[in-house]
């Protein structure tokens, strides 16, 4: 057995770590493949980081002969993207065959580079092409609303309307209708150029709808979502999300970890911890709205510190893709004095498992938070379309639709139970597996 672990983004390399540890312990050969283009300075940082950690097992597109030349073809007008996809598929097919991989594990099956790899794997007749689970629940309707929200401000033009109309004929599943207007998963111009190359998944809105052998789901709820939207039930296997295995150990050592982190952050040993899990709203909102959102989040934190400050210390875990200075600058000096900002010093899992109350703005870490007995609140950022769809399925997480909701719930925090223990157990059952054996199950699936 020889396995290729494809990571479509840097954080997914870390998501593979529980699995790679088992593979190493069983002397199973594996490589980690990254096909990202070096568009940002972070590429050099991360490529060096993982090359140091994994050595020759870490492979980027630039390590593959002719890889650099082929991915640069997309810069050419009109023919560039089709040329990159066609030659890229051939290159990866040759690479996979030469490496003699028996299994390809992919962290995504919908972005273009993932589609190229999956097509290459199928052409190379690799019999095991497996989709790795993600942390958060992937809901089709939520993804559609996210795309709709992101595309609403795009300027209309005759050229775009014509391209959109033709693309809907070529790839009908690519579009969604909202208020009588079509929106798209893949840009229509990409569909026009790649529509005849059989590269796109059957339904791009559904995770697992590409040409895969097996689909590992993080939870019962995710398996159900995939099945409802047409994914073959015989291909879906509920393994849990392997990085969640760490949560069990963290919970078992909660008090020691809490004391350690409090000491490191110079927090009051007698106060409870209120965790704010930051978000990267640039994914879902246009830049003109950032100022409004910054003000709202700043107001939320101000109310928290005013209402429950005497009982709680506040930790703000900054989202991995958000700059720490940019995050801190949205708050007044008075508020900043009451908050400990954490970037890389401690993981979100470490902080979740020591917290006595948690506030987030819709994030994958909500599922990890379910392992705790802490009250969990989820605040709606103004204008966020997907909030209701995301939060509706959780029974033990309290939605906060506005500042009034926030103030009302803070006034009763600690006085009455913030959630029903039975409902928390039900959420755990629906949104993950917390027995510490997720990585083991995934490796067995291979």
TrEMBL record:
Give the signal peptide as a residue range, or say none if absent.
none
- InterPro entries named among the record's database cross-references: Glycerophosphate_synth, TagF_C
One GO MF term on file is: CDP-glycerol glycerophosphotransferase activity
Name the Pfam families on file.
Answer: Glyphos_transf
- One GO cellular component term noted in the UniProt record for this chain: membrane
Q: This protein is called what?
A: UDP-N-acetylglucosamine 2-epimerase domain-containing protein
* Species the sequence originates in: Candidatus Spechtbacteria bacterium RIFCSPHIGHO2_01_FULL_43_30
